[in-house]
Amino acid sequence: MQATLTTALSLSGAVATAGALMTHAAFGPESQLFGRTVIAGHDPNEIALTYDDGPNPAATTGLLEVLARYNARATFFMIGAHARRYPELVRAVYAAGHLVGNHTMTHPWLAWQPGRVIREELGGCSKLLEDLTGERVRFMRPPHGARRPAVMRIARHLGMQTVQWNTMGHDWQPIGAEGILKYIDGGLRRARRWRRGANILLHDGHQAELEANRSGTIAVTAALLERLAGTPMRAVTVDAWG
């Protein structure tokens, strides 16, 4: 009886461990268990400013002005439904020399979707963005960072690498520019400690709100670029690491 109980407990522990490992693989932004995911390079002086959930007329134009002021390039992971509504913003981002990436058509949790939906979400977004820019989309970021092997496989089949992050601004929370910058500074310290570049996750839009207020994100972007001026640090796009 004792041996049976011990075996049962061991099996239960193994199942729990396997479940925790799969959860980390699906949602941990830096996990590589399901396949190679672009995070950052090994130069601590490289910083990638990445923006999800746009385009958004209330924020994207302001970000373009700040980036132009500092002659910096960034990566914009766009939602197809928003891009369809604001095609001129997609073209403006691309014309300014920034990298345009795929963030699905409607921002679902891809890890929970059947293969047909994953293909429709990623394929539809890429086709729309490519029609607007005239350039192939080579990078995608899954909404919420959620993926499973099928997501990675379908993205590769569509010619895209999956991109995550290692620094998060939490700018969807009502914490203001100071709060956003505090989170980013923590991520920058961690990246430097591990001798990595910093892939900074920010948002110029919102998955459900068409004209979300991202003034804090714009202010933080200006503050970060001001810091970089006159230092060895530089802003790069994620294709520098892909």
- What is the annotated CATH architecture of the largest domain? Alpha-Beta Barrel
The total of beta strands comes to 8
CATH class of the largest domain: Alpha Beta
Number of helices: 8
Low confidence ranges: 14-19
Description:
The chain is an alpha/beta fold. It has two domains: 1-33; 37-240, Alpha-Beta Barrel (TIM Barrel), CATH 3.20.20.370. The protein is 46% helix and 13% strand. It has eight helices and eight strands, in the order αβαβααβαβαββαβαβ. Helix 7 (176-193) links the parallel strand 6 and strand 7 (198-203). The longest helix has 26 residues, at 2-27. The chain starts with a helix and ends in a 6-residue tail after the last strand.
Which characteristics define this entry?
alpha/beta; 8 helices; 46% helix; 2 domains; 242 residues; six-stranded parallel sheet; two-stranded parallel sheet; single chain
What would a concise description of this structure say?
By secondary structure, the protein is an alpha/beta fold. The chain contains eight helices and eight strands.
Q: What's the SSE blueprint?
A:
Layout lengths: L1 H26 L18 E9 L5 H10 L5 E4 L1 H6 L1 H9 L3 E4 L12 H19 L5 E2 L8 H9 L3 E2 L4 E2 L7 H18 L4 E6 L11 H14 L5 E3 L6
Parallel strand pairs: 1-2, 1-7, 1-8, 2-3, 4-5, 6-7
Helix pairs in contact: 2-8, 5-6, 7-8
